[in-house]
Design goal:
single chain, about 230 residues, mainly alpha, about 0% strand
């Protein structure tokens, strides 16, 4: 609490963007040896924290603006992430002994997606056009999905003991398309349910709260992209 108060005070005086300030404070705190190391189960982040954040971001996204910028958003969120992942994998594989292609691509998938949410929060304080803001927000919805799918493909290849660019690419496409299909199906069903329950606010509220968790869990259970399904 004390650290948050100090950060807020410093930000208001220096007019620094909050993500930049948080990174600086995090780097400083990481050098201190007086803090205990907290081990967080990744399943908590993926299954509990991530779905409602994605759902809220997608819910507040302007659909007309997203459609107009879809080609550019897809190029950044999918094309740029995959190119960056591949470049990192090639560099890591060539300079680090013992790193096979699967491990190299897994590392590339972890590093490649930019923090577009942080970029969006910074951009809000700048005189940028609505078109550019929409591009950043739309890219932030999809880039993590691309990276997570690439990461899972690399892990599958690592566990199976063999890596094939063709198999990894095919797996990437299958997981992406199936995630979108599951999301559209559940979304269509939710719209029908919303019309049927019109006026019953309690049930509608419960359904909205349950929807992101159920969608993500179902998609992941079916080996699809839970992130794309929720979005």
């Amino acid at each position: 609490s004390i650290i948050l108060i100090v950060i807020t005070s410093v930000r208001s005086r220096l007019k620094l963007a909050l993500p930049i300030l948080l990174v600086i404070v995090g780097l400083i705190l990481s050098l201190a040896q007086c803090f205990p190391v907290l081990a967080i189960n990744p399943d908590i982040i993926f299954n509990i924290v991530l779905p409602p954040i994605l759902f809220d971001a997608a819910w507040n996204t302007s659909i007309p603006d997203f459609k107009r910028q879809f080609s550019k958003i897809s190029l950044l969120a999918v094309g740029l992430v995959l190119i960056t992942t591949t470049v990192i994998a090639v560099v890591v594989h060539s300079i680090i002994p013992g790193f096979n292609w699967a491990i190299s691509f897994a590392l590339g998938a972890i590093i490649s997606p930019p923090d577009a949410i942080a970029a969006t929060s910074i951009a809000k304080d700048l005189p940028l056009s609505r078109k550019l803001i929409t591009l950043l927000e739309g890219e932030s919805l999809l880039n993590d999905a691309s990276a997570l799918i690439a990461f899972k493909c690399a892990i599958i290849a690592l566990v199976s003991g063999g890596f094939s660019f063709w198999n990894a690419g095919l797996q990437f496409v299958i997981m992406g398309i199936s995630g979108v299909a599951i999301g559209l199906s559940i979304g269509y069903g939710f719209v029908k349910l919303h019309r049927f329950l019109h006026g019953n606010s309690n049930v509608e509220t419960f359904a909205v709260l349950l929807l992101p968790f159920a969608t993500y869990s179902l998609a992941e259970h079916l080996a699809a992209s839970g992130v794309l399904a929720v979005v």
